[in-house]
């Protein structure tokens, strides 16, 4: 088994990576709920809550604070923006068809692929190409925007065995 060496993340990108951790937890929760045979509507309600309260803002911050530093024709930027669009569309479909387990699975799979792409490729590109001034501006804006971030206070822990 190949062991991946941890990536030294720029301070400007640390908060984005932390948020990716919570995105990965969302994926795990979806998969656990489906594995336990939980009513997909309950899972969909949480996905909608999480998307509206966390992911949408995360995508917006990435697009405005990170992607904007890359040329509009940059291949990594184009991939990331397209994946955001796909994930937004899937979230909308889940909202409209909350009983559809395929959509929940697809959303989890696409979100995981997207997070891995950003962490392994896009963020490395940004770290290696942005100057210190740009990184400092991103850091400052992220610190200000995250002063009053709310906690995930969802009460229906469907992903925990013996909680349902």
Q: If you average the pLDDT, what whole number results?
A: 93
Helix content: over 70%
Unreliably modeled segments: none
Number of domains: 1
Shape: globular
Supply the number of helical segments.
5
Radius of gyration: 17 Å
Largest sheet: none
Determine the strand fraction and express it as a percent band. under 5%
Q: How many DSSP E strands?
A: 0
Q: Write the element-wise H/E pattern from the N-terminal end onward.
A: HHHHH
Q: What distance lies between the first and last C-alpha atoms, to the nearest angstrom?
A: 36 Å
- Helix/strand structural class: mainly alpha
Question: Concise description?
Answer:
By secondary structure, the chain is mainly α. The protein is 71% helix and 0% strand.
Q: What's the topology here?
A:
Blueprint: H1 11-35, H2 40-66, H3 75-96, H4 101-129, H5 132-145
Helix pairs in contact: 1-2, 1-4, 1-5, 2-3, 3-4
Task: List key phrases describing it.
164 residues
Task: Give an overview in words.
The chain is mostly helical and 164 residues long. The chain has one domain (13-144). Helix content is 71%, strand content 0%. It has 5 helices and no strands. The chain has helices at 11-35, 40-66, 75-96, 101-129, 132-145. The longest helix has 29 residues, at 101-129. It is globular. The N and C termini lie far apart (36 Å).
């Amino acid at each position: 088994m190949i062991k991946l060496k941890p990536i030294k993340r720029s301070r400007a990108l640390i908060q984005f990576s932390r948020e990716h951790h919570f995105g990965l937890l969302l994926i795990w929760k979806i998969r656990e709920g489906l594995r336990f045979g939980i009513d997909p509507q309950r899972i969909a309600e949480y996905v909608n809550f999480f998307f509206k309260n966390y992911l949408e803002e995360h995508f917006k911050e990435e697009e405005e604070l990170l992607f904007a530093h890359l040329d509009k024709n940059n291949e990594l930027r184009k991939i990331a923006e397209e994946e955001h669009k796909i994930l937004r569309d899937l979230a909308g479909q889940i909202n409209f068809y909350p009983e559809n387990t395929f959509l929940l699975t697809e959303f989890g799979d696409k979100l995981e692929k997207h997070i891995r792409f950003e962490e392994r490729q896009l963020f490395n590109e940004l770290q290696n190409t942005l100057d210190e001034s740009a990184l400092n501006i991103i850091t400052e804006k992220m610190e200000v925007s995250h002063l009053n971030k709310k906690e995930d206070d969802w009460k229906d822990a469907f992903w925990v065995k013996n909680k349902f």
